[in-house]
Amino acid sequence: MGFNCGIVGLPNVGKSTLFNALTESAAADAANYPFCTIEPNTGRVAVPDDRLDQLAGIAKSAQILPTQLEFVDIAGLVRGASKGEGLGNQFLANIREVDAIAHVLRCFEDSNITHVDDSVDPIRDAETVETELMLSDLESVERRLANLVKKARGQDKDAIALMATMEKIRDGLAEGLPARSLTTLSEDERRQLPALQLLTGKPVLYVCNVSEDDAASGNALTARVAEKATAEGADMVIVSAAIESEIISLDDDEKMEFLSDLNLTEPGLARMIKAGYRLLDLITFFTVGPKEARAWTVANGAKAPQAAGVIHTDFERGFIRAETIAYADYIQCNGESGAKEAGKLRIEGADYRVRDGDVFHFRFNV
């Protein structure tokens, strides 16, 4: 089961630099000119989770394998992208494939780095990108509605129901409202958004790229972005791409010393990864043993057989039951044996909904 987050934004805001730091590679050719990233670069990154180390320590696991999240670095967008300007059509096609959007906003001044609008204004930049996505969605929705009308005339019940949803979305987009923020949609209609693959239906994380001096507390520009995120019910993180690039080659001790000097407790990218994980509404479960302690990812609300299927499709197909220990109980009882003795190991069936931190052992038969 793959989950990915597209890194988007205007040219020269730091997207590729952040992507390089995220993946600790030079896969994306960061440079001071627009469209240096033409094909979307993809990288998988480990999701920081202290719980995994705690579990591995108790089980004396020989190997520790964190869960991962995929980031996609997408070409910079410019005004008019919905009409094909710049690399607009390619940008829009690439972003349609991701599950969520990490929108990088430039929140620093630097005369050596050009800006497509010749000034720094993250709110304007965010609105530029959002407008292009809404225009593209509006065109797509109107095209779909034309096809649905024909089916609805033939009394196609599914077409009639979908047409009502699409009309609400069209009206909202025409008023300048992204699909994800429409209050006119019912819960059932809102659940349809991922399947509709609307650009403005995807959850958004605002990533404020700041200078080293502002990495710890932000600045006036990030404060404005925070207000925007709060108003939209979105999330935001502050990251300094310059710092993240500097600390890639440092070992853990040097890295923490460097961050401490800047009054930071963890890398900004760690916050970005965690925020992206929350944005996709994901949870983590664990498998623990002497060979390895491993973290796995499932969507919030997944049931035990689905979690088993993340490990191997045979586990889901032949699912019998799940032996489950809550993370807190595993720690408190000092491992599986102690949890069993304390009656904290539970036997769960196919209807069990996975909880964040569950330690599983799956029984299956194929």
* Overall shape: flat
Which structural class matches the secondary elements? alpha/beta
Provide the gyration radius in Å: 23 Å
Average pLDDT taken over every residue: 86
State the order of secondary-structure elements, H for helix, E for strand.
Answer: EHEHEEHEHHHHEHEHHHEEHHEHHEE
Percent strand? 15-25%
Describe the main β-sheet briefly.
6 strands, mixed
What fraction, in percent, of the residue positions are helical?
40-55%
Distance between the termini: 21 Å
pLDDT below 50 for ≥5 consecutive residues: which ranges? 25-38, 84-88
Helix segment tally: 15
Number of strands: 12
**Order of strands in the sheet with most strands:** 2-4-1-5-6-7
Key features?
366 residues; alpha/beta; 15 helices; six-stranded mixed beta sheet
